[in-house]
Amino acid sequence: GDSVTQMEGPVTLSEEAFLTINCTYTATGYPSLFWYVQYPGEGLQLLLKATKADDKGSNKGFEATYRKETTSFHLEKGSVQVSDSAVYFCALSVDNTDKLIFGTGTRLQVFP
Amino acid sequence: DGGITQSPKYLFRKEGQNVTLSCEQNLNHDAMYWYRQDPGQGLRLIYYSQIVNDFQKGDIAEGYSVSREKKESFPLTVTSAQKNPTAFYLCASSIRPGTSGDTQYFGPGTRLTVL
User: For A98, which of B98, B105, B106 is closest by C-beta distance?
Assistant: First the structure.
C-alpha cells in the first residue's frame, strides 16, 4: 500500500545551521506531496506542497523538490531559526482520493 | 477570520462513557476529516465526509461515530467501545473532495484523556 517514511528525530541544530529532513514515499499512482508543520500544542499547518514530478514547493525559506526517480521529497532550509522548532510531517495524497497518508513526523529542535 | 474551531481543547472522560468532540468550520469547505494522533505514529484517519449527510470510514473507525447534518459541523463521538481513546484528535477540512493535491486545513486539536 501507499506509505511515507521519514527520518527519525529529534534533529538538533544550532541557529543558522542547514536543515535537511528526509522523506521517501511508496505510491501506486501519481501522488501529490506535502510538508506540514506542527508547533507545540497546536494543529498542523501546511508548509509547502508539490503536485507533480520536478515541482519545487517553497515557503518561509523551506524548500522541497518532488523527485520521482528517487521517490523522495526532502525538506531543506538554508539557515534555521529557534522559531522553526516544531514537528514536521511529510504526507502524500493519491489521485482522486481524499486521504492524506502521513509519515510519523520528525521533531526539530533549534538552539541559540 | 475564517478557520476551523475545535472544542474543548482538553477533555477528560471516565472509562465507559461516550464523549463528543466538536469541529466547526466557516471556510465553506465541502470535505471534513477526523484524525487521531499518537506519539511516534503520525496521524491516522478515523472518518471523513465529502458532503452533507454522507461520510466514510477511515483506517481506524472502530469505536468512533460521526454525523454531518450541516456543512459547517462534523462532530466525532468516542464511544465506550474504543479500547484506547486517550489521544490528540485533529479535525481538518478541504475545498474539493476527491482531488489529489487539495490542501487540508487543520483545527487546533482536542486532547482527550481517559481516567
Answer: B98
